[in-house]
Amino acid sequence: MFKSFAKSAVAGALALTVLAATAPVQSAHAGNSGAALVGGFVAGAIVGGALAQPRGYYAPAPAPRYHHPVRAYGYRPAPWSPEWYRYCSARYRSFDPRSGYFLAYSGEYRFCR
Prior knowledge:
Number of strands: 2
Strand order of the largest sheet: 1-2
Number of helices: 3
Radius of gyration: 39 Å
Structural class: mainly alpha
Strand content: 5-15%
Shape: rod-shaped
Oligomer: single chain
Helix content: 40-55%
Largest sheet: 2 strands, antiparallel
Distance between the termini: 64 Å
């Protein structure tokens, strides 16, 4: 890929150099074609280099990450399992892990399902 950019930069520099060297000189110093040649080469190198630059950098895509499956709505783990203890403790502040009951807003104790 770099080779094609370098080739186009060199081609652009040479084309502008030839154009600058063959253009008629409109000054009193008609013998300064060497300066025009050097100026044309520099201008061609700048323009060719600018045209040869890649237009943007695209970073590689990040590696795919594993996402845990989302549980179905209304999921409740089996009673007395470790998931059940975590679920009920997180859901109800008054959950008692020894009995499996929690205090509802109505004032009665209910089993966590």
